[in-house]
Amino acid sequence: GHDAVRYVLHRHFVQRAGWFIRGLEPSNDTWAEVGAAGGVKEWVPAYLQRILEERVGARGASLRDLAALAAALEDLVDQEARGRLETI
Question: Nearest 5°: phi and psi at 51?
């Protein structure tokens, strides 16, 4: 389920890069909607979540699915960091 995906991604990023990504911490519900007005997802981009949920359906996420999501998130973090560095 969502808790398992969140846990695996959290552990991956903590062990690999020392990253604590907001929304992936074990005490948080990454997949729950936040805020009454916008239905904004916390940190995990809505389109990545939608793609994963459409792809896995009721069968659940495979290791390959989790690896693809982790790679996509890592790429987004990298792009954001590069963008911030370019503004300096």
Answer: -60, -45
- Give the DSSP per-residue string, 14-37: HHHH----TTTSTTS-TTSEESTT
Of 6-15, 28-37, 40-49, 78-87, the one with minimum mean pLDDT is 28-37
Structure tokens at 22: 């907001």
Q: Which contacts of 42-48 are long-range, i.e. CB under 8 A and separated by 24 or more positions? A: 44/73, 45/76, 48/72, 48/73
Sign of CA dihedral 62, 66, 67, 72: positive
As a whole number, the mean pLDDT across the chain is 77
* pLDDT tens for each residue of 7-26: 888 899 999 999 888 777 77
The CA distance from 39 to 33, in Å, is: 5
Cβ contact 12:30 at 8 Å: no
Instruction: Retrieve residue 3's tokens.
Output: 């808790």
